[in-house]
Amino acid sequence: SEEFVLPHLSEWSQGAQAQVLKEFCEGLGITAVKFHDLRATFITQLLRNGVALAKVMAIVGHSQLKTTQGYLRLCGQDVKGATDELGIQLPEEEKAENVIELNFGGRN
Description:
The protein is mainly α. The protein contains five helices and no strands. It has a domain at 10-74. It has helices at 16-28, 35-48, 53-60, 65-69, 76-79.
């Protein structure tokens, strides 16, 4: 039989893992988390930490890139500064003479 990276519990077949997770969260008195969200977080964190995409796909059992992409979660922080590597220097903004800066309680 095929070996799994993580234990393959019999009660997790056919979507039962979602029910196990729901009951676990309810037992702790916290908002239920969807199993899909846990997989998405796992995949996203592996990629953020530099694990090669091919390895991530192997770990989670995906043979198609499109499947893995469905789990990927990006936020603004993930893409912030990504274009800095291009080395393009944008010109400083010129201020018009008829503009007055306002200061609202220390905020600009």
